Amino acid sequence: MSVPENTSIIIDGTGSLDAGSSDGQSAAAAGIGGNDGENAGSITIKNGTVKATGVNGGADIGGGSEASDQGSCYISGGSVNVRSMGPAPQVSASDDTAVYLTTVTLDGINARTSVDSLIVTYDSGSYPYGTGGMYTDTSGKLYLWLPEGASVTGAAIDDTPYSGSVTTITDGSAGTLTVGGHIFTTTKTNDVFDYSNTPESGKMYLRVKTEPDNKEFQIPVCGRTASSTYDIPYDWSVDWGDGNKNTESGTSSFSGGILHTYSESGTYTITITPNSAESAGWFRAFGFNIMGGDGTASVEANKEKLTGFAGVFDDASINFDSTDCLLSQIFHHCKNLTAANVQINADIKKTGNHFASHMFNNCTSLESLPDGFNLPGGYYVGRRCLCHPNVLRLHQSYNSAERLQLAPKYY
Q: What are phi and psi of 404, to 5 degrees?
């Protein structure tokens, strides 16, 4: 692939690139960079799976044979398999931190396999490393380029987590991750949440997946107190999972949302914490709307980015009346939601007829609800507490412990 002096290329997709000599196998060209005798330009890799092979003295990435300038190479993501690197690679044009080849093997993988996410830490915090379109080779190896001292401690393939620790020292650093650990792993943060455990009370965790052509996500604030009554106040601290943290406040609305644009596509954990833990009903502003919205947080494209949720709804100070819409429609049409650990505090003794109405409607990737969504006998459960078609649902009011205990476990 020819990238000669005074030209540049950015590789930031979800596919794979196997680049050989751009000037013919008999020439002395780089795999990516200069042709025979040519200097190289600027090469940036943010995502994807890249293999480059130079010939006859040409660098795999860099200048051709006898080039006087190897150009520049910036790597902030992807699996980049090369034998010879002409320039000294760094994170980006604006960050001159050097990066070094670190080979991470996922134990037991013997075919080219897509990797969903990585956990990388550096300098006592999370390290953003792009995993869009990242595949292992047929030996289960990933070829990562990381700063000295960075550690890879987790990875995920479908529902299989891998854990361990591979630390970058210099070029040639290598290690293995084995099956085990938490499934709730993310690309850009060291926050790890295990759905088998009860979420921390007073927090919500959202797992979202963004794409290279759409790196935005809006936290939905479309919560309602009645069928068309919004204006529920919120005051939250939001950790977006990529190193950015904000304080967000306002009121819910039909299409309300808190927008964030990620610099890299990938999977992230968003953590939402109320700024006042004592404020009653702090979570009530959260949720998607049953409608498509008018172009903001409730639109279908935004809903489809949500893949996981965990939270404890534990405001025991409110008895919800018959018109209250708490939890109503909050995950409506989140088609890619695969894990939902929703815990209901045992002190909530009464809910209205609209409690959790259509809460998981058309969440077609969600096969069941967690045990924490089971309300003990003695609760008053609203008559419209519905889930999506794949999950058991209630259609009637249950006004007594006897009737409730005969109801399905999952609502």
A: -65, -40
CB 32 within 8 Å of CB 2 = no
366, 392 in Cβ contact below 8 A? no
pLDDT in tens, 191-219: 344 544 556 667 788 888 888 888 899 99
Q: How far is CA 357 from CA 50, 205, 218, 312, in A?
A: 47, 21, 22, 18
Residue found by looking up tokens 């890299």 in the block: 264
Does an H or E element contain 404, and which? helix 401-405
- The DSSP code sequence of 11-43 is E-SSSEEEE--TT-TTS---SEE--TTPPB-EE
Q: Are 330 and 286 in contact (CB under 8 A)?
A: yes
- Classified as helix, coil or strand, 402 is helix
DSSP secondary structure letters along 71-117: -EEEESBSEEE-S-BSS--EEETTEEEE-EEEEEEETT--S--B--E
**Would residue 172 be called left, alpha or beta, if left means φ above 0 and alpha means ψ between -120 and 50 degrees?**
left
Residue 94's Cβ-count burial label (10 Å; 0-12, 13-18, 19+) is exposed
Which regions in the chain score pLDDT beneath 70?
Answer: 21-26, 159, 181-201, 225-229, 277-282, 290-298, 312-327, 342-358, 366-411
- Tokens describing residue 198: 């009860």
Place of tokens 């404020």: 279
Beta bridge partners of 257: 220
- 378 phi-psi bin (left φ>0, alpha ψ -120 to 50, beta other): left
Q: Using CA atoms, how far apart are residues 63 and 35, in angstroms rounded to an integer?
A: 7
* Residue 218 near residue 300, CB atoms below 8 Å: no
Widest distance between CA atoms in the chain = 85
Residue type, 160: T
**Average pLDDT taken over every residue of the chain:** 75
pLDDT 10s digits, 37-80: 899 999 999 999 999 998 888 899 999 888 899 999 999 999 99
**Nearest partner of 240 among 219, 278, 277, 270, judged by Cα:** 270
Q: Are 114 and 157 in contact (CB under 8 A)?
A: yes
